[in-house]
Amino acid sequence: MGLSEVSNILWRERELLELLLFKLDEEQLVLTSGRMRWLARATKEVEMVLGEIRRTELARAIEVDAAAAALGLEPNPSLTRLADASPEPWAGLLREHRAAFLSMTVEINQLAELNRDLLTGGQKAAREALLSMSEDEGTYSPSGSTVSTVPRARLWDEAM
Q1: Range of the domain at 78
Q2: What tens digit of pLDDT does each residue of 102-117 get?
């Protein structure tokens, strides 16, 4: 066990983070294509990968604590601290894992934020479209009270 098991779990986490990136990319493709039929499935797949990452993180925490104890470290050390206390080649490998995690985390955060923006924009557009179909569009006066608008002629796209 020890550092070998920690490294194996870290590799598994890296694979899961790569899969998460892929699933977020998939979700983005669904969002940008306008094919909302698959959005729920794409989002569920992202959530499934996140659940697997959480389970793997728990296994990693257990193994890291065991390795830390063997190296004379306090429980729950950072990867940097674990690498500093480890002999080569483990020290270098742990540093590589850390660098990969930092890089993937930046990518995941950027992609997740972009997807969130796309979802928010889509929600806003759908809300505006629904409001434009109602008799009262719910506009506001300068004082903040609601103002009814006069119904007007509308063109309907049958594909909608």
Answers
A1: 3-132
A2: 999 999 999 999 998 8
